[in-house]
Fold each of these.
Amino acid sequence: MFQLRKELLVQSAPADQGSAEPAQGSQSEVLTENDKYKVTQHRYSDLELPPGAIGTVDTALQRALVQVPEVLYIWDYTSLQGTPQRSRIKLPEFAEGETPLCLLTGGDAANAGGSNGIVIVYRSSGKVIFYENVDAVNNLYSKLSTELLSHQLDLKLDASRGECVTRALAMDPVGCVLATSEGRVLFVSLRDSVGRPNVRVVKQLNKPRHTRFNFGFRGTASPRDTVVSLRRGPQTNKDENTCYITTARGQFHIWRLVGAFNAYQLLNVNIYNAVLESLRDLYPFAYNSLQILDSHPVDTSGDPTRHIFLSSISDGQQKNYYILSTVIFDLELKTFSVFSTYRLNTYQAPLAGPTLPQLMIPEREPSQEIINVVVQFPHNVVLTQISSKFDLSFTLKRKWEDILSFRDDVYFIGTGYNTSQLFLMSICGDSQCKIVQVDLKGTNETEHGRNRFVKSHVEQAVYFQSTAQSTPIEFNLSDDIYLDEQIVSEDLSICSDDIFHSKSKFILSSGEVNLLGNLKSRLMYYNNFLNFVAHNFKERTSPQLKCTFIEKYEIMNCCLSLLQFIDQKPNGALQEIWSKILLANNLSLEEFVISKLELFPTVLTHLLKELAGVSDHHTNELPLIIDFLIGILYNSVLESGENQLKLNAFGLSAHDHTPLPWFITLDNLTSINDLFFQYKFELAESHQLEGKDQVSEQFLTLLKILYYCFNSVKVWFAENTAEIQAQAQQYETASQINKLYVDNHTDWNKVLCEVGYEQQSIQIAEFYQDLESLVETLETLPHDDPMSADYYDKFFEKYGYKFATALYEYYCRTNKLNDLFYRFPKWKPLLVQFLGNNQDKYGEISWIQNVFDGEYEAASKTLSGLPLLGTPMDAGQLHLNIAKLTALAADGPDVEELTRIQANLDLLAAERDLMHNIADADFTINTWYANTDFEVIYVKVLQALRETKCVSLNEVIELYTLTSSQEAFIESIRVFAAHMNTLPYDVKKYLTAAIWRRCILHDGYFNGSVDDPSKSLLYGVLVCFFEEQLYEEGDFSLPQPTQLMDHSVSHADLLTNLYAQYLNDGDVAGLRRTIDDDIEQIKNLGESLTLKVQSLVSNANDSTGNRCVVDYETNEIVQAV
């Protein structure tokens, strides 16, 4: 993995006083960076500090100082040495175990180039010690240095009230200012008027009021009157300085300190109520909770009238709001006003411990339009910016705000800052002294538009989290920070896209690192990104957005695996195909990997399709192709992406994705399925399918890929059925994928069984609830194996009727009737339920159970209700005969049911006769219907009969009447008369008209080729009609001219229902045209039609003994004799 930056450990020359750089040798490292700041850590591994150490960084003197109870360390933090030289000063023992306050001072005011001095203040005893030359006491015995070189002062603290020094501020060149726990502020001079050491209290700068209690005790300072801030102001001339004092009760003082002899007050006001009033409308609870915490001049070396006050208010629910109040003072009128109020948005933790937050405002450059404001909390640093122009637009300008968070085991022991840098001295678990340097970039906010807080922190976590093994930075965001969900989604999407398309400035270009290195680094960054999102925004982002992020990770990981695999096998078919696909898509490898990965799903689909096709010709490379497939899909996508990220890290369902995941397409699934079976057949042919664990594992892994993908489609379709059905293309794709699954899933498991992985097949089929495959795998186990019986009981109990259905369907499908009825007597109720629910599908079996249970009537109805069409005649006849027997065996036989059964038996007998008749050479289609759709029907029905399959009654009639044989027509009316009552009314009307119309059209008597009426085809058929009294069956009518010419009898819906299955695309228009032609031929016969039909009907009736009274005007039988 390549380095994030070309150098994280950099060196630079010492800067000027306004921009001092700490030593950046081998122990310095960049922790994080963005457009506003850069954070660097400098470690001093040889300096280990005990708890309670206190430090400071004096940027004016370019010195770092750390004091512990016995020793004081001072060094030049701008030194280029990795381990700089340090002064080590043994502290006098005025208070055992106490760590004093220490201040560095400059040289004599008259001699600015003199050495640095140091002031040591013992807080409890009030002893002040001044050394005017640090170098003189370096490593000197403390007693000797105290006696010979120190200058001392006793502050005479009030021990009765436990008074101690709480704050100290160096005020070069005039001395220092000390604050005590009693609220006193003392101006201490260090030198006399000619620059000689002379430590004395010049003046007490404030006189705190005390709250007196009854009982005569002395009062103590109010807790709200303690000094919370000592700040240095501008140095007005060589020996004058300004000091700002703020107390917890809001008392604010400005003092002018003059040389070593005097101090006078410029201002003394209380800002507490004014700040409180400014918060009243937005924060009513401020009245009971406002605390003044710190203050700082806006311009340290310039205007003394503008100050920012830090305060806190609490809502009483363990949440604090921290307020920055900008206050402008009028020194002449001794008045002030609260100019603006701003609440910090990134930190809301309650105050903890005695240490208060610290406000820091680095001096700005004259050209800067913004002012940096920093608030240091125990483990956090909040940075914000305000406009340097205090005009009417000041409060309307958007405030930039950010937060640096540190680990809980990181403790700040001192700070320092200059115009552009902030220094945080810290210790952590390893006790090493460290300085965290924050370089504040003087970037005006308007240069970059809206600040993207989320984007900035995501980038820091992504690109810097791995750069330092022991980074003190805590990159995760606090739950207290309010973030707009839309902005979160936008910023996360930008960060994701920057990595995916190599747009981030932190990603090395292909010129700096090879393609594999580039992709590896992006993958590492993207993994950091996903971890950050999972930890910070799991509940603030939609499942769809999280799936989009995971998808990009999977694509990059899959692409990396692909490139690594090709890199290992550079001369095979895989490399050849890969190069061809890139060329076909007009892509260079570099362009594709760096910025075109959105095309990867399409490219992968082409690759898999090519591999599935080429494997037929490169069978020797099939094992390699299978390993490749497993590597890029299972390891890189399913395991790393779907399992570890989607399911575990983000807690999503495997199906939280709409539409389907990028790798699940019909083409991909088809290719994987093809490769699965090609590999199986190749191994089977070479006798390498069995006995190899590696091969078994390969098939198992492929099966996991297939099942995961198809199951995702199944769930997706179930959850989005309405939407998918509304889109024809999506519905068609889903249907094709489902068909692919149905056609192959049991065969996958058969292969697993063939390689000896029956148990694994059972496990995966159980996991995905593929009960059909589960049953088929269980059936490979020996029946006498106790484990087999346990499995069946387990799954009967777990899945109940669903498992029973899969098992019983398997037995029915494979004709294992003995197992069906006898193997699982314990679960007979489920068998009875299954057979009862599936009589339409398994009626030819379910009747057996009815017989076993003595339910003969049910058995008879089941058998008689079995469909006959298309089934073998022998089977149909057997079922009907058994139905007849069981009907007779039932209590109180159903006569109507028996009649219906017998009618079907008779129809079967007629079909057998027809089957024998078609063997006759004269049994051919009438040439009139040749080359029409009726011939298509004729041929297909004829074929069914030759195969001894049952056909319908209307098909029997059609077959007889499409010939020219009188015997065929006679047989047709016999069959029709016998069974016409089983037909719907419109079918009867259609067949009646068709029989008589075709009979007339094929009769030579009507077309003039036959003169003798007794030789007429119709006459012979009518004789049979009267002689056998066929008119008595149903309502079989005589031929009526109006009926023969009625087009509506043969309507399209009727023809579609009867014959669409025989025609291409189910189009019956050709049948209608043929029937219309028949009707036109009938109409062309004119008046002779009626006369000849009447004559033939009369003659036929006479020849058979006039058994009917016929109305010859209408050809209706009035009465049968």
Amino acid sequence: MAVPGYVLKHRRTTFERAEKFISSTFFTDVNLYGKLYPLRTDIKGIKHRALPGLITRHSAVTFEEAIKGIYEETRVGASFGPTWATHWFRLDIEIPREWGLGKQVVLVWDSGSEAMIWRDGKPLQGLSPDNKRTEFVLTKSLDENAFSHTLYIEMECSDVFGAGKGGLINPPDPNKYYTLRRADIVVKDPEIYQLLLDFEVLLDLIKHLPEESNRSYQLLYGVNEMVTTCQSQSNYSRARDIAHTLLSETNSQSQHTLCAVGHCHIDTAWLWPYEETKRKCARSWSSTVRLMKDFPEFIFACSQAQQFDWVKVNYPSLYADIKDYVRQQRFIPVGGTWVEMDGNIPSGEAFIRQFLYGQRFFEQEFGKRCTEFWLPDTFGYSAQLPQIMKHAGIARFVTQKLSWNLVNKFPHHTFWWQGLDGSRVLTHFPPGDSYGMDGKVEEVMRSLNNFKDKGRSNHSMYLFGYGDGGQGPTTDMLERLTRLKNVDGIPKVTMCSPETFFSTVETHEAENLCSWTGELYLELHNGTYTTHSRLKQQNRRAEILLRQFELLSTLSHVVGEGGGRKTDYPAGKIEQLWKIVLLNQFHDVLPGTSIQEVCEEAGRLYEDVLREGSVLLADSANQLIDTLTPQGGCTEHGTARIINTCSWQRSEVICWPEVTLADRLIEMAGVTTQAGRDGKTLVFVSDIPSVGHCELRPAVKLPVPVTVQKQGDDLICIRNGHIEAAVDKTGRVVRLCMVNDVSRNVVSVGSHANQFVIFDDVPLFWDAWDVMDYHLETRTAVVDIIEEATIVESGPLRATIKTSLRISDKSTICQYMSLDTGAKYLKFYTEVDWHESHKFLKVEFPLRITSPQVTYEIQFGHVQRPNHFNTSWDWARFEVCGHKWADLSEYDWGVAVLNDSHYGWSCIDSVLRLSLLRSSKSPDPTADMGKHKFTYGLMPHSGTFQSAGVIQAAYELNEPLVCCGQCADHSSTAASYFSIDNSAVILETVKKAENCNSVILRLYEVYGGTTTVRVKTSFKVTSAHLCSGLEDSLDGAIEIEDGNCLVLHFSPFQIMSVKLTLGTTTPN
């Protein structure tokens, strides 16, 4: 009987027929998948080396070391560990001759963990069952020379995402063992593999095209015909022809185009330590290079100079391959930074150093710089990043993290991002909302459907490849995308570089795009401003220490050259220390969202920088003062000297450090002193020159002494010439006012400033990352007194009140509230012994201020955010990031809170809160536990915060004067190497240029206005040029007055770098 030419089709059964035909689970005895591996045999020669020293945590054993010694037999089913251990295996593979020639033979290895294949000392490919990469092609066509193979496998005892015990972000299980589940060789039929991919892609199209569309049914009937055709293996080629015909029906010219870019986001540390990332890079990039040999159109984008440098040092043969593909413009360095850093917490100078050292590396290694900033996975983006990018020569930006917003959907995918100063960068968020897609039709359609800028732009990026833990693109992904190049019904998919994508948009679509002004605030992960507070404190101190060390080293070098006493500039050491700090600013380290081991290592690295940097700072200070010593030596007694690294004159109380002859030098100077509560000497120093130094000397006129006294049974009053305050028994400020207007109390009526408060802190999932809005409903004031407010220092230079509070039966606070003579703010030296679980400690300041906006310092400027919850965009920002200060002001009156180490803030209804400590338990159960010491300040002011000196006060709180006892020429008692005639501009950086003997100044406008300033230097200025953050000379002449004064014109919040050639100096 003849077979009918048609059969009525039921959509579901027809679709599932094809699904089952390629299933790896169902009917594999008769379906197509079951024929993929026709021959298989176990590997007989599996040997394992387990000598002492080889099974070590994060083993740094080289291949040469690993292959030495005796390997012992092991087998499938054996287990290896513990967590983070490294095991090496030798595989002696013999392919059975009866398999015959011409076959593709594949090694299958599944140890349940990450691994890497080595041969002849070269890393060949990474393996990871988590990312479906368990196969390694031994030969594509078996010949007489390919029956025997010897391979080595380096097995890492962790999953691709570490070893969380019972969950992704749980703390690692330290005793996890991994079982060798499979080690065999198979024949893989390439024709069947290609046919399986044809089926998979076609079924994916049917599933995600509109169900009732003609195209969907056309594909369904075609796939059904393919299944029927495959009843005989001799017809497989015909089935492939059917697939080719279906996939060759192309789109119209108007169809949206996806620029497919291979990508492998590797967190420099996260659920694994830095040392493991080095191997993740090798596993991932060796696999990528191997794929490039098979897919000539494959383009791969890769960021983070630090990771390139690690591969260069540890895997030179792989690095040579990478450099070759970079030359071919297929392995494309992107980003331009040392690491993918956090986008909120680092200082402005640290951001610039990320680009400086990153771009220098890429230029030195590959002969070119990156043209786009690449930061897909950080937790929000500072409003100054567009200007910093432009200052580093980059005008394009790629990220996708704002797709994680919890409340509001960001309205654009391709747009102009305008920064604080008006700088604009072309910005793209891949609309697939991921940097790790895998070539599926669903992702392609999502990219089109999500795209918010339809009509304005017809192009977007599609980033594919396994990420976070690495591994990157796979053969399956590339095969899928090859089939989806130009298929009717879906966007066009073309492999191209980020450069090609951005150039297309700039040429054809840029004028159509919308703009977004200000920060890109991520409505999630805002607990990261506070988690692991100690790391953030170390980072702040390291940034400031390096600034001071670099400045004094530069001055010492220039002054020494001018005086014929040349000193070596420690360029190598400065770069080394900066790169450690930049490494720790990676977006899962500085935010505190990594495992305990990572945070502990980061802490040790910071301590190394602080310890070594402190010694180097002291050396550079002494070296600078030495340049003033007569050539024949100093015959008089030494003098105590003070160095000011800020660009304005300073007068303040200092605690003299423990240095040789300190007490004698202070006594000789005849200055006013006070014995401090810690046994050190307090000294009032006055008129310390800007970016300069002078000997310790009596003040021409001392400020009004500070006084403190009890007022009744409940209050203590403290006062100097600027402010006065009343403090209750718990250390809370009940009254704070200016001395010239005592009737105006800045503390809200019936409230208390400096009130410690604790909140429940239980997020939905991301423990170390998130603080949720509902935590605000759980406020509890800390009022349990251990020690009532007591006067412990009574002036005349400093008065201090001590209080101790109990947070819980596990945690306590001890605080010293101080007011110095001449100071405009109260200081709160705070010690917390913290042992909580899922609690959040803040200090709050209810202020008698009416204003809709709060001002917060950020990198090189400040931003305003709402003091209300009017809209969803407002209340989504219930916790925000700020740096050294925040200010709430109304006309001609306001209050600022300063701090030396914290970044989390909130303000609603004029209650300003500084976030102090969290107590998350995943991924680090010890986060923030233990003892903490930090300082914050409370500063009432008249006028604006700009005119009141809030910005300078915050600098002074964070950047101590440098003290030294040193012999010096008394004819030069003071020197100011740089000074600025306008407090609206701050000299942030003084450094020696990277590639010449010039000096780089980095300044910025801090008030938010247009201004002209004169920067006077004690050096003769031979030449002055504007330059970029990368120190490239820019167009634009700089006017020089009197041979030593630069006339500079600033727009609001402008960052300016100046390259100077300097002559001799005469300290003034």
